[in-house]
Amino acid sequence: MFTIIACIGKNRELGKGNKLIFHLKDDLKFFQETTLNHKVVMGRKTWESLPQKLKNRENIVISRQNFAGPDQIVHNLDEFIEKFQNTPEEIFIIGGATIYQKFLPFAKSIYLTEVDTLEPTADAFFPVFDKSNYSSKLIKKGTEDGLSYQITRYIKN
Ligand SMILES: NC(=O)c1ccc[n+]([C@@H]2O[C@H](COP(=O)([O-])OP(=O)(O)OC[C@H]3O[C@@H](n4cnc5c(N)ncnc54)[C@H](OP(=O)(O)O)[C@@H]3O)[C@@H](O)[C@H]2O)c1
Predict the structure, then answer these.
(1) pLDDT along the chain (157 residues), means of 10
(2) pTM for this structure?
């Protein structure tokens, strides 16, 4: 079972220059707690943007290349989706844009931190998705560094 987790701006902004845009402590804590001890799946560019491997999680990187560092590199994305989409185990899809796009049709739920601001210089965006196809549950609302955000769990109907 795939669960997407992401943090976006009002225009679905995800990143710029292969870096995150938002660094909200509460959001990072939520990400940390939610994904702990699970498999986390990311694209090669997101992997390269991390300062280090995400601790206490199995780091799975999607790439057409080979390199050292991750616990596993997946070359064949379709095969991976086929193998894991109906397993009871919750596998977290942690970005970036191309990986979210690919997994969106197969993900049962999305943890989305929506930050109430625009970032005009963003160059990576979360895919458009139709919220009417999901039921939603508000997890947390807050303000940090003058930025309002809310964390919602969207579950596919
Ligand atoms: N706000 C958030 O929650 C959040 C979360 C994560 C990332 N981000 C941001 O998102 C941005 C990165 O996103 P991105 O879309 O540029 O890159 P990405 O999705 O992280 O990685 C793209 C790479 O994944 C590999 N890939 C993609 N599709 C594949 C396939 N079908 N088969 C094999 N490999 C495949 C390719 O690697 P190779 O080129 O090695 O083959 C491709 O270059 C950064 O700005 C990052 O900070 C934001």
Answers:
(1) 98 98 96 98 98 98 98 98 96 98 98 98 97 98 96 98
(2) 0.98
Residue 55 DSSP SS3: coil
Whose Cα sits closest to atom 36 in ligand 1? 63
Q: How far is the CA of 133 from the centre of ligand 1 (A)?
A: 25
Whole-number pLDDT of residue 6? 98
What is the rounded distance in angstroms from the CA atom of residue 49 to the CA atom of residue 128?
23
Residues with beta carbon inside 6 Å of ligand 1? Answer: 6-7, 14-15, 18-20, 42-46, 49, 62-65, 75, 77, 94-99, 124
- Among 94, 88, 89, smallest CA distance to 70 is for 94
Q: Looking at ligand 1, which atom is closest to the CA of residue 49?
A: 47
- Compute CA distances 87 → 5, 38, 40, 46, 73, whole Å: 18, 13, 15, 25, 19
Query: Residue 109 has what pLDDT?
Result: 98
Check if the beta carbon of residue 126 is closer than 8 Å to that of residue 145: no
All structural domains of the chain: 2-156 (3.40.430.10)
